[in-house]
Amino acid sequence: MTSSAWRVPLICALVTFALAATALMIMRPLMAIDETRYLTVAWEMWTGGSKIVPHLNGGIYSDKPPLLFWLINLVWGVFGQSEWIARLVAPFFGLLSVWLVAVLARKLWPEAPERAGLAALILATTGVFLIFGSTTMFDTMLTAATLMGMIAIWGLKDGLRAGPVIGLGIALGLGVLAKGPVILVHVMPAALLMPLWAHGEGRPALKGWYGRIGVAFLIGFALVLFWLGPAVVLGGAEYREQILWKQSAGRMVESFAHGRPIWFFIALLPAYLWPWGWSRAGLAALKPSHLWADAGSRLVTIWAVTALISFSLISGKQAHYLLPELPALALLLSGMLPTAERRMRALRLFWLLPGILVAIGAVAVHFGAFPELPDGSGSWLFLIVGLVILALAGIVAMRAREGWRAEAFVAPLVLVAIQAMLWQILWSVYDTRPIAELIASHSDHGVATTDGNYAGQFSYVARLETPVTVLTGDGALENWMAAHPGGLVLAPKALDGVSGLGEIAERHFRQRDWRLYQVAGAQALPEQGGDAPVAPATVTPETAAPAPAN
Questions:
Q1: Are 118 and 337 a contacting pair, CB within 8 Å?
Q2: Is the Cα torsion angle 495, 499, 503, 504 positive or negative in sign?
Q3: Among residues 10, 2, 31, which one has the least CA distance to residue 455?
Q4: Dihedral sign for Cα atoms in the order 428, 452, 469, 480
Q5: SS3 label, residue 511
Q6: Within 10 A of 160 (CB to CB), how many other CB atoms are there?
Q7: Own/partner long-range contacts of 196-204 (Cβ < 8 Å, ≥24 apart)
Q8: Would you give the DSSP letter of residue 259?
Q9: Which region ranges are annotated with the description Disordered (predicted)?
Q10: List of E strands, 3-108
């Protein structure tokens, strides 16, 4: 790869990510509960909810800031309401991150411009980045903000220019609006530990450096304040506590969701490195001598290692929490270029291991080895298509002259093959449409659910114009029925013995049998305690149990 050809791999990276992410989205339904929940929050904002304070099931939703929901509403306003338009918002930031990692590589190693194109190609075709980058979640936005912050931090060392200071402030502000103060964990260690990565005469004076970091922090805070000020006023005391403490620092002190052991992310390192780190060239690029070879490598290493340590110490852990560090791995792995040629091509088949394991499992499912899973008897075509794509990935891996060209196609092809082979399971387990269509056709008189942890799984897909009421507490169901004759009740278990309810349908969704009941007309409702029916209890969204946090 010549120094003038870095743009070609960058273009290939952008096109590959766009095509692969689109294919992965098309081949799977909206995934409950995360994607369905976030689209429901955006939908409630679209149908008349507050544009400042997000809501879910009619109650305040404090788990995440509003940037994703704003952007979904923005594209709906421009292009019209559409599920597919909404699902493209988060992957767009994945595409932006692919471009930004090339920009950062160009700045870190101007003497090796070919690393920019390779870094973009590595990020775009890293398996974990493709999986989460194609979903409607917050982490691609956070990744883009982190990359913007790193570009600004590198620019800060070159003098007193205002641009990098403002850029870092904007990056911090956007990161907070995307996913909260967690952006500080991704960005600030690299800024605060500048003396470790900037050596020699080019190192900035400490006083001036930390002064500029402080100014950037204030700029970011001011940007967030434009939203946070009105939000804490409109949201009330409970929202202030949730958004300012529990959903950020509270996670770090004591997890209330997703508790994992301290070694969780260490165990996931092979997955984060697939497929580029699954080779001798990739592992050679991660040798300690390479990680500390120059200022750029030291900056990126500090960025990755401090985040790994910080999130390992936080009790709440999810695989996608380290998505903003995948660009750091891509930058470090881009140093493999001088050793990209492979002598033992047979070792490349090792990159196909995830697909091979899934293929074995998928064939076993089709032959009934796991009776608790859908047998897939009607989806042999998808299994065959998946196996053909997996075989194609093997052919590409074996025949490519340069290892990096083979690796660039392995993850996209293998992931598409996996989703084809799992087509029946994904759609039978996660498709919300069968229940949502029933809800939509019986929603004229209101919809409630007895599931205290209902997270909006069906609300957006059903396009409900009014939020679902979550019924909790003694008498809540009976009182809601009294106030909503003809209303619909969604229950994850049978409501035997409740008079005035007629079962409409039963549907299986995610290992649960959901039942839909319709409340009898007003004249059929039983009277309780005398001649007059019981007055409806106050069943408000605030009484509902909060949805599980992401």
A1: yes
A2: negative
A3: 31
A4: positive
A5: coil
A6: 11
A7: 196/298, 196/302, 197/295, 197/298, 197/299, 197/301, 197/302, 198/157, 198/295, 199/295, 202/157, 202/295, 203/157, 204/156, 204/157
A8: B
A9: 526-550
A10: 55-56, 59-60
The backbone region for 497, taken as left when phi is positive above 0, alpha when psi lies in -120 to 50, beta otherwise, is left
Name the residue among 474, 481, 473 with its Cα closest to residue 545. Answer: 473
SS3 of 365-433: HHCCCCCCCCCCCCCHHHHHHHHHHHHHHHHHHHHCCEHHHHHHHHHHHHHHHHHHHCHHHHHHHHCCH
Q: Give yes or no for a contact between 411 and 126, defined as CB atoms under 8 angstroms apart.
A: yes
Task: Name the CA radius of gyration of the chain, rounded.
Answer: 26
Question: Encoding tokens for residue 244?
Answer: 């300012």
What is the reported pLDDT for 547? Answer: 44
Rounded mean pLDDT, 201-217? 89
How far is residue 395's CA from residue 325's CA, in Å, rounded to a whole number?
A: 31
Backbone angles phi, psi at 504, to 5 degrees: -90, -45
ω into residue 275 within 30 of 0, thus cis?
yes
Question: Would you say residue 181 has pLDDT above 60?
Answer: yes
Rounded Cα distance, 214 and 203, in Å? 18
> Residues for the chain: how many in total?
550
Q: How much is the mean pLDDT over the chain?
A: 85
pLDDT of residue 23: 94
461: Cβ–Cβ under 8 A, 6 or more apart, which residues? 30, 36, 83, 432, 433, 436
Strand-pair partners of 449: 470, 490
Question: 131 is written with which tokens?
Answer: 């999986």
CA–CA distance, 37 with 458 (Å, rounded to integer):
9
Positions of E strands within 277-399: none
- Asked if residue 101 lies in contact with residue 6, where contact means CB atoms within 8 angstroms, the answer is no
Question: Do β-strands 447-449 and 469-470 pair in parallel, antiparallel, or remain unpaired?
Answer: parallel
Nearest residue to 515 via CA among 543, 486, 494, 501: 494
* Contact yes or no for 470/57 (Cβ under 8 A): yes
The 3-class secondary structure across 187-243, one letter per residue, is: HHHHHHCHHHHCCHHHCCCHHHHHHHHHHHHHHHHHHHHHHHHHHHHHHHHHHHHHH
Q: Which residues does 419 contact at the CB level (< 8 Å), separation at least 6?
A: 23, 24, 27, 28, 386, 426
Interhelix angle 183-192/206-241, rounded to 10 degrees, is: 160
- For residue 484, what are its two tokens? 């909503």
Q: Show the tokens assigned to 160.
A: 């007193």
Q: Are 366 and 422 in contact (CB under 8 A)?
A: no
Closest Cα partner for 279 from 410, 116, 392?
410
Residue 521: burial class (beta carbons within 10 Å; 0-12, 13-18, 19+): exposed
Per-residue confidence band for 242, with pLDDT thresholds at 50, 70 and 90: confident
What residues form DSSP beta bridges with 518? 488, 502
